[in-house]
Amino acid sequence: MTGDLSPDDVGRIIEMAWEDRTPFEAIVIEYGLDEGAVVALMRGQLKPRSFRVWRKRVSGRKTKHLRIRGFEIGRFRCPTQRCR
Fold this sequence. Notes:
Layout lengths: L6 H12 L5 H8 L3 H11 L2 H11 L26
Helix pairs in contact: 1-2, 1-3
């Protein structure tokens, strides 16, 4: 799965997955990885403890899924985030 992704891409996907306000759908749009693929990537890239902490953090988090978000926001990129 990560074979066709550069190390920079893998790092950015991990960063996006940790961010509270970045939904999984944004990762699908930018990298073509659905939630299951992101979970598999995180499991393979993180230490076991870090993976468990991340899964606990994002499980059921409304901001990680556009369809259950209770608010509408525009696209936001921080100044240090690279543009595509």
